[in-house]
Write a structure and sequence with these properties.
By secondary structure, the protein is α/β, with parallel strands linked by helices. Helix content is 47%, strand content 12%. It is built from eight helices and seven strands. It has a seven-stranded parallel sheet with strand order 3-2-1-4-5-6-7, with helices on both faces. Strand 5, helix 5 and strand 6 form a beta-alpha-beta unit. The longest helix is centred in the middle third of the chain and has 29 residues. The protein is globular, with a radius of gyration of 19 Å. The relative contact order is 0.13.
Length: 286
């Protein structure tokens, strides 16, 4: 896909962060935009700001991406408003919490629902429509560099991001076998200046742990360190420019930070050689 003027983009997690950056890039390219987010107030603020600066049609739609019927309603809204869907960003995500055995069932349900099943549902619900259009289009699934390397971040987050990478690889294969005009990419961002560290603000009440002890001093210090690193990260607008270059180039894997490549290569070599990872590489914030 290399033509965007007057085409239709659907973006989940679009009220802030990478999703908001992608939305602005879509508007700059002359696209019509359906912006979805679970935070209604933040979504409206973003839509209003874009309408002030751009003349493109833009619609906000409150969406819980972990719920299949909510994504189905988003798809139908896009078709009702604009009659087609050309560019789909399965972008919504949460940071998550919990270790390999300390994460509760509710921790896993929350993170898998938002980070992985939303992409499964998005592909399942949107792809038939986009295929039937028989026009050029593209799907971008947001994973993370944590989906390309091992043992970083928390367990539920890493598991879901590895899953999104694998899912997009399968999508790429299946689109090729179908002879489709659609392309796809998996976005694997590194350190980006977003508010994902506070994503628990959107955690559904029924998935909040009943026994949720106050964070320890060590956990608070780690959280502060994480927030400080994220605040110095790449701006979402820069990410959006990288993504659109990747779409134009039909690039399956889209990264934002080349300095993670050594760690990706080391992981592959560890697998090939049957070698255990160097424990120092478990440090995410180095």
């Amino acid at each position: 896909m290399d033509y965007f003027q007057d085409q239709v983009a659907v973006i989940t997690g679009g009220a802030s962060g990478i999703g908001k950056g992608l939305a602005e890039k879509c508007l700059q390219e002359g696209m019509k935009v359906i912006l979805a987010d679970i935070e209604g107030e933040a979504l409206q603020v973003t839509v209003d700001a874009f309408r002030t600066n751009y003349n493109n049609p833009i619609v906000g739609h409150i969406t819980d991406v972990s719920v299949s019927s909510s994504l189905e309603a988003l798809r139908d809204r896009a078709l009702t408003e604009f009659g087609a869907i050309h560019l789909l960003f399965n972008n919504a995500g949460v940071g998550g919490a919990g270790g390999a055995w300390t994460g509760t069932e509710k921790d896993w349900d929350w993170v898998i629902g938002v980070n992985l099943m939303s992409v499964v549902h998005g592909q399942r619900l949107f792809l038939p429509v986009m295929l039937e259009q028989n026009t050029p289009g593209h799907i971008v699934n947001t994973a993370s560099v944590a989906g390309l390397i091992g043992g970083v971040t928390n367990a539920p987050y890493s598991v879901t991001k590895h899953g999104v990478v694998a899912l997009t690889e399968h999508l790429h294969r299946d689109l090729l076998l179908a002879g489709s005009k659609l392309g796809c990419s998996v976005l694997c961002p590194g350190i980006i200046n977003t508010n994902i560290g506070s994503s628990a603000r959107n955690r559904p009440q029924h998935l909040i742990n009943e026994d949720n002890p106050a964070p320890t001093d060590a956990q608070l210090a780690m959280r502060a360190q994480f927030d400080a690193v994220m605040a110095k990260g790449m701006l979402p607008g820069q990410v959006a420019n990288i993504v659109f270059n990747g779409i134009r180039d039909q690039q399956l894997y889209i990264q934002t930070h080349e300095h993670f490549n050594d760690r990706i290569q080391t992981r592959a070599e560890d697998i090939i050689q049957g070698r255990n990872p160097d424990p120092k590489l478990y440090q995410w914030l180095d």
